[in-house]
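Students often ask what a holo structure prediction actually looks like on paper. The answer is less mysterious than it sounds. You provide the chain, you provide the ligand, and the output is a string of C-alpha cells encoding the 3D arrangement of the protein together with iron/sulfur cluster.
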Amino acid sequence: MRFRCLHCLHCCFFSTPVDYPIVLEGEVDTLKKLALERNITLNFRRITDQFYLWIIEGFCPFYDIANRRCSIHENKPFSCKMFPLLLNIRTGEVSVSFACDWVINHISELINERNNIAEIFPDEFKAVVNLFKKIKALRSGE
Ligand code: SF4
Ligand code: SF4
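The corresponding C-alpha cells follow.
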C-alpha cells in the first residue's frame, strides 16, 4: 500500500488554529518573498527560536483552487511536504493526520501496517527526515 493524494482540497483549507502549518524561520523568509511577488499578505506568529505558526484562514493564498494544486510546490514548507504525516516538534513523534481523506479511507490498513510509515509515505517521510536534519543543523549552528 502506498499513499496517493486525492487532491481533495482539505489540507490547504484552514478552519481551525490547530491545523495551521508550523514553519521554520528560513521558510518564513521564502514564503514572504513569494507573497511579495504576488502582492499577497501573510501572517506568522513566532512560537520558538526556530519555528513560526503560519496563520491561514480559509484557503492558503498559494492554493490554486481551479487546478486543485499548490502553486508553490517546489518551495512549499516542510510541513506541507510531509503532510499527511505530522511531526511533534517537542517530542519528535511522527503521526498520521486524520484530517486527510486518503488516511480515513485506509485507516484499517494503516492500523495493520502501522510500523511501515516510511514505506507507505516514502516522499512525505523523506520530508520528515530532511526537516529533522535541518533542525539538527540549526541547533548545532551550521
Ligand atoms: S503552501 Fe501549498 S501545500 Fe502548503 S498549504 Fe499552501 S497551497 Fe497547500
Ligand atoms: S487531505 Fe490528504 S488526500 Fe486530501 S489533498 Fe491533502 S494530502 Fe491529499
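The radius of gyration is 15 Å.
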